[in-house]
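Hey, sorry to bother you again with one of my protein questions. I've been puzzling over a protein and I'd love to understand its fold better. Take your time with it, there's no hurry, and the full record follows here:
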Amino acid sequence: TKTLTTRMVTLAVATLAIVSLCFSANAQKVDRITQLENKIKLAEEKVEKAEAKVNQADSLINVGKELEKEGKQEIKEAQADEKALIKAFDNEIAPIEKQLKSKDRDDVTAAKNDKKALENKYKADLKEIETRYKAADRKIQTGMKNIEKGKEKKGPAEDALKEAQRSLKELEKALAKASK
Protein backbone atom coordinates (compact mmCIF):
# COMPACT_ATOMS: atom_id res chain seq x y z
CA THR A 1 0.00 0.00 0.00
CA LYS A 2 2.92 2.26 0.66
CA THR A 3 4.12 1.80 -2.89
CA LEU A 4 0.64 2.40 -4.17
CA THR A 5 0.36 5.61 -2.17
CA THR A 6 3.81 6.67 -3.28
CA ARG A 7 2.86 5.99 -6.87
CA MET A 8 -0.35 7.98 -6.48
CA VAL A 9 1.49 10.89 -4.91
CA THR A 10 4.10 10.75 -7.67
CA LEU A 11 1.36 10.64 -10.28
CA ALA A 12 -0.44 13.56 -8.61
CA VAL A 13 2.78 15.59 -8.48
CA ALA A 14 3.54 14.78 -12.13
CA THR A 15 0.01 15.74 -13.18
CA LEU A 16 0.26 18.94 -11.16
CA ALA A 17 3.61 19.74 -12.80
CA ILE A 18 2.23 19.10 -16.27
CA VAL A 19 -0.87 21.25 -15.60
CA SER A 20 1.24 24.08 -14.14
CA LEU A 21 3.56 23.89 -17.17
CA CYS A 22 0.56 24.18 -19.46
CA PHE A 23 -0.77 27.17 -17.52
CA SER A 24 2.70 28.69 -17.47
CA ALA A 25 3.12 28.27 -21.24
CA ASN A 26 -0.35 29.69 -21.78
CA ALA A 27 0.40 32.63 -19.47
CA GLN A 28 3.63 33.31 -21.37
CA LYS A 29 1.69 33.26 -24.63
CA VAL A 30 -0.86 35.71 -23.21
CA ASP A 31 1.98 37.96 -21.97
CA ARG A 32 3.64 37.85 -25.42
CA ILE A 33 0.33 38.73 -27.12
CA THR A 34 -0.23 41.63 -24.69
CA GLN A 35 3.28 42.93 -25.37
CA LEU A 36 2.70 42.74 -29.12
CA GLU A 37 -0.65 44.52 -28.81
CA ASN A 38 1.01 47.34 -26.85
CA LYS A 39 3.78 47.60 -29.45
CA ILE A 40 1.15 47.72 -32.18
CA LYS A 41 -0.61 50.63 -30.45
CA LEU A 42 2.69 52.52 -30.27
CA ALA A 43 3.41 51.72 -33.92
CA GLU A 44 -0.05 52.97 -34.91
CA GLU A 45 0.64 56.23 -33.07
CA LYS A 46 3.93 56.58 -34.96
CA VAL A 47 2.09 56.05 -38.24
CA GLU A 48 -0.45 58.73 -37.30
CA LYS A 49 2.30 61.20 -36.37
CA ALA A 50 4.15 60.50 -39.61
CA GLU A 51 0.93 60.94 -41.62
CA ALA A 52 0.34 64.26 -39.85
CA LYS A 53 3.82 65.45 -40.85
CA VAL A 54 3.24 64.44 -44.47
CA ASN A 55 -0.11 66.24 -44.43
CA GLN A 56 1.54 69.32 -42.93
CA ALA A 57 4.15 69.33 -45.70
CA ASP A 58 1.42 68.92 -48.33
CA SER A 59 -0.49 71.78 -46.74
CA LEU A 60 2.56 74.05 -46.93
CA ILE A 61 2.98 73.20 -50.60
CA ASN A 62 -0.70 73.86 -51.34
CA VAL A 63 -0.70 77.17 -49.46
CA GLY A 64 2.45 78.19 -51.31
CA LYS A 65 0.92 77.39 -54.69
CA GLU A 66 -2.22 79.33 -53.78
CA LEU A 67 -0.20 82.39 -52.67
CA GLU A 68 1.84 82.24 -55.85
CA LYS A 69 -1.32 82.05 -57.97
CA GLU A 70 -2.91 84.99 -56.11
CA GLY A 71 0.27 87.07 -56.46
CA LYS A 72 0.45 86.44 -60.21
CA GLN A 73 -3.23 87.39 -60.57
CA GLU A 74 -2.67 90.61 -58.59
CA ILE A 75 0.29 91.49 -60.85
CA LYS A 76 -1.91 91.03 -63.93
CA GLU A 77 -4.56 93.28 -62.38
CA ALA A 78 -1.96 95.93 -61.51
CA GLN A 79 -0.56 95.80 -65.06
CA ALA A 80 -4.04 96.30 -66.50
CA ASP A 81 -4.68 99.22 -64.13
CA GLU A 82 -1.32 100.76 -65.01
CA LYS A 83 -2.05 100.48 -68.73
CA ALA A 84 -5.48 102.09 -68.22
CA LEU A 85 -3.93 104.87 -66.11
CA ILE A 86 -1.32 105.67 -68.77
CA LYS A 87 -4.01 105.76 -71.47
CA ALA A 88 -6.23 108.02 -69.34
CA PHE A 89 -3.28 110.32 -68.59
CA ASP A 90 -2.41 110.58 -72.29
CA ASN A 91 -6.05 111.39 -73.13
CA GLU A 92 -6.30 114.04 -70.39
CA ILE A 93 -2.93 115.68 -71.07
CA ALA A 94 -3.47 116.15 -74.84
CA PRO A 95 -5.99 119.05 -74.54
CA ILE A 96 -3.83 120.67 -71.85
CA GLU A 97 -0.79 120.49 -74.16
CA LYS A 98 -2.84 122.27 -76.85
CA GLN A 99 -3.81 124.95 -74.33
CA LEU A 100 -0.13 125.51 -73.49
CA LYS A 101 0.43 126.60 -77.13
CA SER A 102 -2.32 129.22 -76.83
CA LYS A 103 -1.45 132.90 -77.26
CA ASP A 104 -3.59 133.91 -74.28
CA ARG A 105 -1.42 134.15 -71.16
CA ASP A 106 -4.31 133.30 -68.84
CA ASP A 107 -5.02 130.12 -70.81
CA VAL A 108 -1.31 129.17 -70.66
CA THR A 109 -1.13 129.77 -66.90
CA ALA A 110 -4.31 127.77 -66.31
CA ALA A 111 -2.96 124.99 -68.56
CA LYS A 112 0.34 124.89 -66.61
CA ASN A 113 -1.58 124.59 -63.34
CA ASP A 114 -3.86 121.90 -64.79
CA LYS A 115 -0.86 119.99 -66.16
CA LYS A 116 0.94 120.13 -62.82
CA ALA A 117 -2.18 118.91 -60.95
CA LEU A 118 -2.71 116.12 -63.47
CA GLU A 119 0.95 115.04 -63.24
CA ASN A 120 0.78 114.98 -59.42
CA LYS A 121 -2.39 112.87 -59.55
CA TYR A 122 -0.72 110.57 -62.10
CA LYS A 123 2.37 110.14 -59.89
CA ALA A 124 0.22 109.35 -56.84
CA ASP A 125 -1.78 106.78 -58.80
CA LEU A 126 1.41 105.22 -60.18
CA LYS A 127 2.83 105.03 -56.64
CA GLU A 128 -0.30 103.15 -55.49
CA ILE A 129 0.08 100.71 -58.40
CA GLU A 130 3.77 100.23 -57.55
CA THR A 131 2.77 99.40 -53.97
CA ARG A 132 0.38 96.77 -55.32
CA TYR A 133 3.19 95.32 -57.46
CA LYS A 134 5.44 95.02 -54.41
CA ALA A 135 2.68 93.38 -52.33
CA ALA A 136 1.98 90.87 -55.10
CA ASP A 137 5.69 90.12 -55.46
CA ARG A 138 5.96 89.52 -51.69
CA LYS A 139 3.04 87.10 -51.96
CA ILE A 140 4.76 85.21 -54.76
CA GLN A 141 8.04 85.06 -52.82
CA THR A 142 6.24 83.82 -49.69
CA GLY A 143 4.45 81.20 -51.77
CA MET A 144 7.73 80.00 -53.26
CA LYS A 145 9.31 79.77 -49.79
CA ASN A 146 6.33 77.75 -48.51
CA ILE A 147 6.59 75.36 -51.44
CA GLU A 148 10.31 74.92 -50.81
CA LYS A 149 9.78 74.31 -47.08
CA GLY A 150 7.00 71.84 -47.81
CA LYS A 151 9.17 69.88 -50.23
CA GLU A 152 12.06 69.84 -47.73
CA LYS A 153 9.79 68.47 -45.00
CA LYS A 154 7.87 66.05 -47.21
CA GLY A 155 10.78 63.76 -48.12
CA PRO A 156 11.83 62.84 -44.57
CA ALA A 157 8.19 62.70 -43.47
CA GLU A 158 7.33 60.21 -46.22
CA ASP A 159 10.39 58.11 -45.31
CA ALA A 160 9.34 58.09 -41.65
CA LEU A 161 5.80 57.13 -42.67
CA LYS A 162 7.01 54.20 -44.78
CA GLU A 163 9.23 52.97 -41.94
CA ALA A 164 6.40 53.27 -39.39
CA GLN A 165 3.99 51.41 -41.69
CA ARG A 166 6.55 48.66 -42.31
CA SER A 167 7.14 48.28 -38.57
CA LEU A 168 3.39 48.16 -37.91
CA LYS A 169 2.91 45.49 -40.57
CA GLU A 170 5.68 43.34 -39.04
CA LEU A 171 4.16 43.64 -35.57
CA GLU A 172 0.71 42.70 -36.88
CA LYS A 173 2.19 39.61 -38.56
CA ALA A 174 3.97 38.66 -35.34
CA LEU A 175 0.71 39.06 -33.39
CA ALA A 176 -1.18 36.90 -35.87
CA LYS A 177 1.54 34.25 -35.59
CA ALA A 178 1.55 34.41 -31.75
CA SER A 179 -2.25 34.19 -31.58
CA LYS A 180 -2.34 30.84 -33.39
